[in-house]
Amino acid sequence: LLVGARTEFDPDLTACVARGQPHGLASAFQRCGATTSVLVPELLSAWVADLAARGERAPSSLRFVAIGGAPVAASMADKAWMCGIPVHEGYGLSECCSVVAVNRPGARRSGTVGQPLPGLDVRIDDGEIVVDGPTVMRGYQNGSAAVRPWRTGDLGEFDADGYLRILGRKDNLIVTSFGRNVSPEWIEALLCADDRIAACAVIGHGEPHLRAIIIPSPRGAAWFGAVPKTRVLSELELICREAPAYAVPRDFVLVDRNEATRRNLLTANGRFRRAHLANAFAATKDPVAPHDIK
């Protein structure tokens, strides 16, 4: 509104995304000649896969594409740039008017969500991101006033130049039976960078090893159905090669998106309901393999 921009809406594409079938992203961006967009990592992955399948690049009209809502692996961001998508990772939450930090054109640092917006006081307190400033909400509707500064519940750290790196949710931290701490978002971002995986969640709190709950992409569904479990586990280990051995999932469960929705495992915006997962898949546990997972 401030700069007189035109916003494009694509109802048909929106309906496809709502059904968990984000096809046609490449065509939509090409058709409208977009200059900027805001996406979640799952849609970025679908867009990159769409471009690769068509042997095309993103339209040259694009100047800035912000990615937020969930962590995005550096490898996925690299793939996007190679396809002509100018990805800039950001971080925020509704209680702080959405954006807290974001990478800017000409000042992007891979693996971070950029520097905080001017006017915000963003600090790390005992590993937790704490925000204060004019964008912090007054409170929830019909609720008590917000306590400031706002404790986000997100874990993070700053590098030497003030770029913020997100490490995961404080209340999602997994502690294995060997006492290893793992932020599931880190491993999930690595897994979702593979175009065979549309969405996933990592569980294993109090267990000797981690398990990945995987919703395959259309291409991935065929692949998962054609290879033995040992091959899948080897691929998971390869995908997560930058993670220590104890953070690599040693088991997995495949679930169709429609089934996950029917079982109330997904929120309205398609995220896994973490509190439901351990019980929902308790019966699918395999015996722990006696290899090095400590």
Shape descriptor reads: globular
Mean pLDDT: 91
The chain-level structural class is alpha+beta
Largest sheet features: 5 strands, mixed
> What is the radius of gyration?
20 Å
**pLDDT < 50 stretches:** 287-294
Order of helices and strands: HHEHEHEEEEEEEEEHEEHHEHH
Give the beta-strand count. 14
What fraction, in percent, of the residue positions are helical? Answer: 25-40%
Strand order, sheet with most strands: 1-2-3-4-5
End-to-end Cα distance:
54 Å
Beta-strand percentage range = 15-25%
Please report the number of helical segments: 9
List the helices and strands and how they pair.
Layout: H1 11-18, H2 25-32, E1 36-39, H3 41-54, E2 64-67, H4 74-82, E3 87-93, E4 98-102, E5 115-116, E6 121-125, E7 128-132, E8 150-158, E9 164-169, E10 174-175, E11 181-182, H5 184-192, E12 197-203, E13 211-216, H6 218-226, H7 229-239, E14 251-254, H8 257-262, H9 274-280
Parallel strand pairs: 1-2, 2-3, 13-14
Antiparallel strand pairs: 3-4, 4-5, 6-7, 7-8, 8-9, 10-11, 12-13
Commentary on this structure:
This protein has 294 residues and is an alpha+beta fold. It contains 9 helices and 14 strands. The chain has helices spanning 11-18, 25-32, 41-54, 74-82, 184-192, 218-226, 229-239, 257-262, 274-280; strands at 36-39, 64-67, 87-93, 98-102, 115-116, 121-125, 128-132, 150-158, 164-169, 174-175, 181-182, 197-203, 211-216, 251-254. The strands form 4 sheets. It has a 5-stranded mixed sheet. It is globular, with a radius of gyration of 20 Å. 34% of the residues are buried.
